[in-house]
DNA sequence: CTTGGCACTCACGCTCAGCGAGTGCCAGTC
DNA sequence: GACTGGCACTCGCTGAGCGTGAGTGCCAAG
């Protein structure tokens, strides 16, 4: 009973603080929420909550502010994921349906997410490792130069220019194209690399060298994990609304946004499986970012999450709303990747 | 004589103000620069410069600050382009030489430019319009679905999935591939589009419909100017050093960085030909950005500039250094594009 | 034209008092 | 035992007042 009310008080404090950005006092609380008790009672509850470390007083004679621990409890037990409005759902579908390729999907997602949450959005490009090879194309530029085009199931295209040690005829190239595709098409990256590795031994001796060049280059393209480290960032302008503490909050975050590796760590650590995960303030790996929270989730076809997206904002953020937006966008993007490129 | 000294005073004011970020007074000036005259004389010069609108006093009893007009004079007549150090040149070459494709070139350039100038760097992706078609590839996915891959001279690859109204055989496809490439390869976008437009009338009647589908899709891909509107931005963390006036300077710029269209306008208006152009404060098209300057230049193979890059920073920035960095990076990127993809 | 001198201005930083939101505690009530 | 009204107390915020000093403009002399 009493315990329940205390939690209600905590929830009210979090909600009010997020809304007003100012320490919230007992009187304001009972006015804005119908708690059914007097300010004095709320004060008692607040004292208890403070003892337990859920809230904190910036100074005597000020209202209370949630601590990271308080936010944690709020996120874990006091709130569900806020349902998205119809308008928001429609915005998601219409915007994302218009995407023409993988890059476009990522760019649109980032934009969408930052607009929905009014926070900084981060979307990791889908990693290559779990995708499969759809097709390999050969374009002969000169007799000794071939451009390889590797098309993956995610819609990603890698290209490599190969300098061959010897001239190659169109027939040899056509043969090679057929063999390579037979070996690799439909296979996962790892399997395709293996299968391709056996090719040079299977072809006619005079084309073995050329085949080896091509296979090497393809293996390189497939193992190219540059994309793993690529992320798109959007909504940095929302940092402007951080208001105070430019130096302690905005600057470090701005710096982090430049370092994609840092972002990936931030997203990665926050993500387990495909459920929405929240990392609050000091819970994260970077002490400079102790006043920012991360709301992230994995996404990808079916239940094999193979990339991560999320938002970064002040600990004082709208968790239910952000979680809802992150989840909704992740789901929709997953579906698009699923449909477009199975 | 006197006129010369006045300009020397202006130059000294600009340099000191850029270095210290504080209004500079007459006494400090004669101490830091060997002007060979007394503070009183400098004061007279300052009064004259103020009358002419080159400098400005924030308030009585404060030092002087250059006006936009003052910076303009400084840039136009009082400074050359600072030569790059050997270390800087080496940094440019080694970093950019490691780039593997067009995207990578752009990303590296942005990073490089922001590090060299400690400002926000902006690099526009090379536009399609002046590039030529290198090759068109066809990949049959199902009997009625073909993926088109358009490879341009800039190294850019566009892909399009085409749903055909009817089934197509491999022979038809091979024939189409040959015809399309013969018509388009080596041609500029505009010419290629025209040549392709005539194709449906030249092929066998039964493949005319399919040809039309393909040609339409290719024309779409070629006229797709999405890339024209793409820019890469880097070094936003440098905004942190803007110091004061977060709301008046940083916030609007942060917002502008999100709007790539705005950035393009910013860069575009600042650029004529392939010489480095400087746009100072209010000279730009956006009044919100009246305390930021743009240093930009066109770049591209030979003398046909076909994209723009530059930096954006506070009007109080190191113009000679920025101009040097922008010019050096632009030249080097142009050379890379030239070599890699003629 | 330059210079030293001098009176003047005014932003900045400091202190200090008054205000008021908010608290903790206590005695009384249900 | 839990809740409530009352009350004294705390302390950050605000604004006024004041001294300081950097920097100026002007003037008379070199």
Write the layout of secondary structure elements.
The structure is a homodimer of 342-residue chains.
Chain A: H1 2-20, H2 26-32, H3 39-51, E1 55-56, E2 65-66, H4 68-78, H5 86-97, H6 102-117, E3 120-124, E4 133-142, E5 145-152, E6 157-163, H7 170-184, H8 189-202, H9 205-222, E7 231-234, H10 246-258, H11 260-269, E8 277-279, E9 292-299, E10 307-314, H12 319-340
Antiparallel strand pairs in A: 1-2, 3-7, 3-10, 4-5, 5-6, 8-9, 9-10
Chain A binds a DNA duplex (30 and 30 nucleotides) through helix 2 and helix 3.
Q: What is the compact description of this entry?
A:
Two copies of one chain form a homodimer. By secondary structure, chain A is an alpha+beta fold. The first copy, chain A, contains twelve helices and ten strands.
Structure description:
2 copies of one chain form a homodimer. The first copy, chain A, has 342 residues and is of the alpha+beta class. Helix content of chain A is 50%, strand content 17%. Chain A has helices spanning 2-20, 26-32, 39-51, 68-78, 86-97, 102-117, 170-184, 189-202, 205-222, 246-258, 260-269, 319-340; strands spanning 55-56, 65-66, 120-124, 133-142, 145-152, 157-163, 231-234, 277-279, 292-299, 307-314. In chain A, the strands form 3 sheets. Chain A has a 5-stranded antiparallel sheet, sandwiched between helices. In chain A, strands 4-5-6 form a 3-stranded antiparallel sheet. In chain A, strands 1-2 form a two-stranded antiparallel sheet. The structure holds a DNA duplex (30 and 30 nucleotides).
């Amino acid at each position: 009973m009493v315990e329940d009310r205390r939690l209600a008080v905590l929830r009210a404090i979090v909600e009010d603080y997020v809304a007003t950005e100012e320490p919230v006092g007992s009187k304001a609380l009972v006015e804005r929420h119908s708690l059914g008790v007097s300010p004095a009672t709320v004060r008692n509850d607040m004292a208890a909550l403070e003892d337990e470390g859920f809230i904190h007083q910036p100074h005597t004679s000020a209202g209370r502010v949630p601590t990271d621990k308080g936010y944690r409890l709020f996120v874990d037990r006091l709130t569900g994921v806020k349902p998205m409005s119809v308008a928001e759902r429609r915005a998601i579908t219409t915007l994302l349906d218009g995407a023409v390729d993988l890059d476009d999907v990522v760019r649109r997602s980032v934009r969408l997410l930052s607009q929905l949450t009014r926070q900084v959005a981060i979307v990791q490009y889908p990693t290559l490792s779990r995708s499969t090879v759809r097709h390999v194309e050969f374009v002969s530029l000169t007799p000794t130069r071939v451009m390889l085009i590797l098309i993956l199931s995610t819609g990603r295209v890698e290209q490599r220019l190969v300098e061959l040690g010897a001239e190659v005829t169109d027939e040899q190239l056509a043969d090679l194209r057929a063999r390579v595709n037979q070996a690799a098409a439909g296979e996962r990256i790892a399997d395709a690399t293996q299968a391709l590795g056996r090719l040079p031994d299977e072809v006619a001796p005079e084309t073995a060298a050329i085949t080896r060049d091509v296979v090497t280059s393809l293996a390189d393209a497939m193992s190219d994990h540059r994309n793993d480290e690529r992320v798109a960032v959007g909504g940095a302008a929302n940092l402007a609304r951080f208001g105070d503490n430019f130096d302690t909050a905005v600057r470090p975050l701005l710096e982090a946004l430049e370092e994609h590796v840092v972002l990936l760590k931030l997203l990665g650590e926050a993500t387990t499986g495909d459920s929405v995960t929240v990392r609050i303030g000091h819970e994260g790996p970077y002490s400079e970012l102790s006043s920012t929270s991360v709301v992230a989730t994995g996404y990808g076809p079916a239940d094999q999450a193979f990339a991560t997206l999320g938002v970064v904002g002040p600990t004082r953020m709208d968790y239910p709303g952000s979680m809802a937006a992150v989840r909704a966008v992740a789901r929709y993007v997953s579906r698009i990747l699923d449909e477009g490129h199975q």
